[in-house]
Amino acid sequence: MRDAQNPDTLHSFTTHQNIMSTRSRIGLQLSDGSVISIYCHFDGYPEFNGVKLVKHFNSYENAAELIDLGDISCLWTNADWNKETLPETGPLPYSTRGEDCPPRLDKNLEEYLSEGEEYAYLFKNGEWICYHMHQFDDDKNPEIVEIPEVALAV
Fold first, then answer.
1. Inside any domain, residue 114
2. Which residues contact 69 (CB under 8 A, 6 or more apart)?
3. Number of domains forming the structure of the chain
4. Which end of the chain is less enclosed by CB atoms within 10 A, N or C?
């Protein structure tokens, strides 16, 4: 459900009992080729999480700060766990409700892409790359898909 005053925000928590999640993994490739990443439960498709990553986390420093949060329920929301409106829009980490969900470290890209989320994002060489994981089709390997272009205005 979109917020009428801020259509850029999705209130996943107001309807989460009635919708299926599009799960994703969001990673940052380190200088040794390893990948540190977090799980994101909602809105993992490129038209939402991909656009939000490009628009709001498009630097190494911003990507690293996002990964430091640990696993998240939603990448971009203004609703908290009790469905109350937060003062700022942004990620909703599981740690804010007391869960310990630290980032995961994979030794390389192949290991990073071996998990079961529907999409995987990787910040590498100053840009976000999106992989469609074809989770429900064993005959397909992960493939790079385009992240829709975004307007520069916030």
1. yes
2. 38, 91, 93, 95
3. 1
4. C
Span 77-136, pLDDT tens digits: 999 999 999 999 999 999 999 999 999 999 999 999 997 799 999 999 999 999 999 877
The count of other CB atoms within 10 Å of the CB of residue 149 is: 8
- Does the structure show a pLDDT above 80 at 144? yes
Work out the pLDDT band at 137, boundaries 50, 70, 90. Answer: confident
Contacting residues for 54 by C-beta, under 8 A, at least 6 apart: 128, 147, 150
Q: Are 89 and 7 in contact (CB under 8 A)?
A: no
153 within some domain: no
Q: Is residue 59 part of a domain?
A: yes
Query: Residue 113 phi/psi, 5° resolution?
Result: -85, 5
